[in-house]
Amino acid sequence: MTLADLLGRARCLLIDFDGPICAVFASHPATAVASHLHDVIRARLDGELPPAIAELSANPLQILGQVDAIGDDELTRAVADACRDAEITAVATASPTPGAEELLRAAHDTGRRVAIVSNNASAAIDTYLRSHNLIRHVDAVAARFDGMPLRLLKPHSFLIERGLNAVHAQPADAVFIGDSITDIQAGQAASTPTIGYANKPGKHQRLTDAGADAVIDAMQPLVQTLEPATAGPAT
Q: How many angstroms separate the CA atoms of 14 and 117, rounded?
């Protein structure tokens, strides 16, 4: 399916945050955040670090998933809070994705609604959008919130469905843009078309194999596809 096909019928865009909008951990490495979460877990488990968590040294969100599987609500809350605070710190030096602002503006200018759909903390996303004056182009944020059951993070369809509800859209009226296999899986679970953003070597094939309806290597093709459609999405 072409970008023109996908975007031409889309009344709203659902967009992942880390990757399509910015590189959250560009100057505040994910490895440092993961190490901090390890410390929080050790302090709660008398110095122990479960092997499945010890292996995760570069992906804080995967650590959240493993902590949730332990079934200790207090531990899960402590680690989730620490991850949220680290993300808020990280977005202060996050690197904007080239073309992301133009994409948000083009969607807004062509009458489409926009929802940010992300496993990252909603507080961090709101902080970034406001500091970069992007909040005016975003209608809703459907992201990890305090107390949210972590089993509902993508690839579960919960956050996409939450985003759709926030902008009053049906799955077929939207397209979800994400940069991970779990994004594609979440879109499929919600019956929402997906566009994979291959921002790193090897991702193009992985996102294609995961079943993305289209795969891009930059945001500009989306902007260029939207900009001629000054009359907005087809009715």
A: 6
